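HUMAN: You are asked to prepare a plain-text protein record giving the amino acid sequence and the C-alpha cells, both parts labelled.

ASSISTANT:
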Amino acid sequence: MPLPLAVVIAAIVFPAGSEPARIPRPAPIFQPALHDEEWLQFAKSDTPEAAPTRDSVGALQKLWRAQIPEGADGSPAYLRRVPTGYGVRELLIVTTTRGRTVALDARRGDILWQIPPPPGPQWTTSSPAVDPDRRFVYTYALDGYVHKYAVTDGTEVQGGGWPQLITRKPNVEKGSSALTIAVTRDGSRYLYATTAGYPEPDPGDQGDYQGHLVAIDLATGQQSVFNSMCSDKAMHFVENGDESNDCSGVQSGIWARAGAVYDEVTDRLFVTTGNGAFDAYANGYNWGSSVIAIRPDGSTDGGTPLDSYTPTNFQLLADIDADLGSTTLAILASTDVESGPRLAIQSGKDGRIRFLDLRNLSGAGGPRHLGGELAIIDVPQGGPIFTRPASWIDAAGRTWVFLANGAGVSGSLLVVDENGPHLDMRWLSPGYAETPVIVNGLLYFAGDHRVTALDLETGKTLWEDRSIGPIHWQSPIIANERLYITDGDGGVTAFWIPSGVQ
C-alpha cells in the first residue's frame, strides 16, 4: 500500500448545513484567450492545443496562488464558460483531503463556492470528475459516499441514487483513487470509484477492509459492486460482520491514482489489486495482487471476471509488501490498435514492469490462471513505482514510455523484437517525481516543492518553478495556456503565459 501522507492536516471546523459557502468577487482584471478546452478528470485522454509549446513553455510565470482550507492530494478539474451567480466564469474544482469540494475562479483564484465536508473519519486522496455534459461534479467524501454537485453553485443533487454509497467501512476503507468517468462503446456513461485501506497505523494492513470497485450508471443511478475479496458477493460489506454481510478475506486494496481504467478498444474495464489472498486458480473468489478485467458496467459472471493476470510469485510479493496495487496498468500508445496484442504495462513496488496483452491478460484466454505476461523487465531507473506511467507516439511513429518514482523520471523507447517487448531508456531526469502528464508534446510532473516541464525526447528541463508546497500524489493539469497544481500546504497555484508570448 502507498506511503502515508507526508503532511499533518489541521482540523478546521465549518458551520453545519448543506448550503455551499460563496464568496462574491469583482470581475476578472484581465481576459486571457479562452479556447474550447477543459480538463474534466484525472484520467484525461484528449490533448489541449492551446497549451505551452516547446518554444513558449519557458515563459510560464505565476498568475496567482490561492489558499484553501486544507491540502488537496489529487488533481483539479477545469471547466470553461460556467454560468455562476457572479457571471460566466472558468472554474477550477478540487477535492481536499477532508472531502471538501472547492470551486475557484480559474482566472483569479477566488473561491466561488465550497461545500462544508460531510463528517467522516480519516482522509481521502481522491480527485473529482465532471460529467461529459458539464453540469455536475462528482467527489468522494469521508462519509463513504460519492456526492453530486451542480457546477454552477455547488447545490447537491439528492435522490435517484445520490449520494452514492461507496463503502460502509469509511473508518478502514479509503477512497484513494481519482474518480473516473468513461463513455463506453455502446454510449453508456459510468462513474467508477474504488477503495483500499489506510497506511499503518490507521489501522494499516490489519484492518477489516476489502478493495472493491463501484460502477455507477450515470443515466439511471444504478450501481454494481465488484469485491476483490469474496467476489461472488456483489454487495457493500459491513465492518467486522459475518458471512452474510462481510468477507473473511481482507486487504487486496485498489490504491492507484486512476483506480479503474477503461479501454475502448477491448471494451473492458481494468483494476489492479494489492495484498490479500489469491485463490482464484483453485476456483476461489479472492483476487489479491492481480490485474482484473471486467465488463464496463462492473458486472461479472457470478463473481468471475472476464480475464485476470496474477504473477506466479504473488505470494512472495504479498509477503514482502511488494505488490502491484499501488499503481495501475498503463495502455501503451500505438498506431495499430486493430490487430495483435493490445499492449499495456503493469509496474509495482517490486521494481519490475510486466508487459500484458489486454486482449488476453492470462495468456490462457480467460481468468483463474497464473502468469501469462509477455515479458518482465526491471524499471529502467530502478526502484518501486507508485505513480501512473504515461505513453506517447513521436513523429516517427515510435512509442515512448515515461515512468516516475523516487529516482526521477525516465523516458524510454518501446522495442518489440524476437525477445518480446522491452524498454530502451534514452534519458533520466533525477529527483523525486509524481505522475507525469503529457500535453502538446511536453511532459509535466510535480516533485516536492517543484513543478517541471521536460522535452519528451531528450529529458531536457524547459521550465521549472520551485515556489509550490510539498507534493505527495499531486500532478498538474494544463489548459488554455495555463498550468494548475495543488499542494500539501493547502495551496492552489496557477501559471500562465502572458499575452504576446508565442
